[in-house]
Amino acid sequence: MRLLYQRAAELNWTYLPDAERTKQYQLWTTDPAIGGKLLGFIAKPENVRPWIKDGPMKEYARATYGVGKYAPLVTKPATPVDALVVKALGPGWMVDLATLDIKPLKVTIRREDDEDEERRFVWGPVKDFKHLAWAAILAQAGGDPLPWAVCVVDSFVRPVSKTQKVSHQRIAERLGLLVAHVSDG
User: CA angle, corner 137, sides to 132 and 139, nearest 5?
Assistant: First the structure.
């Protein structure tokens, strides 16, 4: 699995379009060093691709942030959450890692000079914006009193378009959320 994650990092997997991911799954499935080795554990060749997709690659984005059982396999970690908070909201915020939750990744943050000022901070790639916003809607509908900051992370290779940023901002304003776009790296 280390080789799989190494290859994913080389491809900038988190920001790879779905069509390119589909092609890559097929290549990995037929690659003797990846799919070939998995055949010893997965009896049927037709089960290799779903195992790769629904197992280690489903966890890849979280693993790059140091979360989950596959995190030790990551060769190219993503920007740590405390650095994302500074990029998105500026300095002066403390990240409470004891509040870390997944699906989507989120933490509670507090102002350094006013611990009564708290927010939920949720982050993920641009393709997950709808999931990030939906998590905020569900939490607030369920009684979460904290304001939410939605951090959309892109890469220098595949930046968020100006049109997408404007759309995200309009949606965030309508929902009473703060949205920030930052680049990983």
Answer: 95
